[in-house]
Amino acid sequence: MAIEQTFSILKPDVTRRNLTGAVNAKIEAAGLRIVAQKRIHMTRPQAESFYGVHKERPFFGELVEMMISEPVVVQVLRGESAIAKYREVMGATNPEKADAGTIRKEFALSMGENSVHGSDAPETAATEIAQFFTESEIVG
Ligand code: RTP
Ligand code: MG
Questions:
Q1: Does the Cβ of 6 fall within 6 Å of ligand 1?
Q2: What does the alpha-carbon distance between residue 78 and residue 64 come to, in Å, rounded to a whole number?
Q3: What is the side-by-side order of every strand in the sheet holding 116-118?
Q4: Where is ATP bound in this sequence (predicted)?
Q5: Which ligand has its closest atom nearest to the C-alpha of 9?
Q6: What is the pTM of this model?
């Protein structure tokens, strides 16, 4: 198995409820290392471009409004099979369907306010990381 990097966002419902540390504890307990992290307030163009793949979906407007409503924490996570492992730790998109012990089961409020984002493939991980971090900001 290979060491990978994945891109993570702690969404506004996490920062608003002061759950950054609680979510990070789950990430670290899963063996993923936080090798870059910053708190930002996403701009509308940033959010629209980040979720561009969903721009024709009915929930797109609501999704963008939610992502720019409060600060977020953007991260790079590193570890063995980090992309798949983080998706496992996150749980299903719909928190009602998420497995016990996952971040979304424990913290998510709804399908939209579902606490975290994680890249779904190596290609998207690389583009998403490059959208928010320079090489020198990632410290292994
Ligand atoms: P993400 O991209 O944020 O990691 O989440 P995901 O892969 O599990 O889910 P995806 O299908 O890519 O959807 C992106 C985000 O859009 C919001 N969403 N709302 N109201 C709805 O029906 C709905 N469906 C999706 C969620 O915030 C989801 O994480
Ligand atoms: Mg997705």
A1: no
A2: 27
A3: 33-40, 72-80, 3-10, 116-118
A4: 11, 59, 87, 93, 104, 114
A5: 1
A6: 0.97
Q: Determine whether 41 is an active site residue.
A: no
* 118 CA to centre of ligand 2 in angstroms: 7
Q: Pinpoint the alpha helices (H) of the chain.
A: 12-16, 20-29, 44-50, 60-67, 82-90, 103-107, 122-132
Task: Evaluate whether ipTM surpasses 0.90.
Answer: yes
Tell me the per-residue pLDDT of 102-138, one tens digit each, with 9 for 90 and over: 999 999 999 999 999 999 999 999 999 999 999 999 9
Q: Which two tokens stand for residue 9?
A: 């966002």
- Residue whose CA lies nearest to ligand 1 atom number 2: 117
Question: Is the CB–ligand 1 distance for residue 138 below 6 Å?
Answer: no
Instruction: Tell me how far apart the alpha carbons of residues 137 and 140 are, in angstroms, rounded to a whole number.
Output: 10
Per DSSP bridges, beta strands 72-80 and 33-40 are: antiparallel
